[in-house]
Amino acid sequence: MTKKIKRTLLGVAGFISLTLGLFGIVLPLIPTTPLVLLAVFCFSYASPKMAMRLRKSRLFGAYLDNWYNKTGVTRSYKMRVLILLWVGIGSSMYFVDPLWLTVLLGFIGLCVSVHILLIKTRVVPRPSDHQLSLEQKQSIDTHNPA
């Protein structure tokens, strides 16, 4: 296979993977993370410029950096993801008819929830006293009298 054909096929695979990953944001049964990671992998060979654009994008940039650097995600991010997951899964469970499919959706939601909860939680440091402004210090002092 020539280099040009390989790059073209990887580029097409990257765009398909990214498109499916975007659908996965709102559709609970499509796994967003592996598809976006696959897209970055494909683009890194087919179009390094596109891979870099994806890694710097507003939508996936911070998420991909956390994944590559293994720094974890914040607790608030985990909660938002879990809420969106269960809203999607719950609405799907409401509209499906067979009981086995409802149970399957619940099982998938449970497995994905466990996976999300097992991802390393990044702790965002609170500002120390010398970083707080005078107004912030006074606000703390009025709420916590000594």
Explain what the structure shows.
By secondary structure, the protein is mostly helical. It folds into two domains: 1-56; 72-122. 73% of the residues lie in helices and 0% in strands. It contains seven helices and no strands. The protein has helices at 3-26, 32-46, 48-55, 61-69, 75-95, 99-118, 134-143. The protein starts with a helix and ends with a helix.
Label this structure with key terms.
146 residues, mainly alpha, 2 domains, 7 helices, 0% strand, flat
> Main sheet?
none
Uncertain runs = none
Total count of strands: 0
What do the pLDDT scores average to? 83
Shape: flat
Report helical residue fraction.
over 70%
- The chain-level structural class is mainly alpha
Question: Strand percentage, roughly?
Answer: under 5%
Integer-rounded radius of gyration: 21 Å
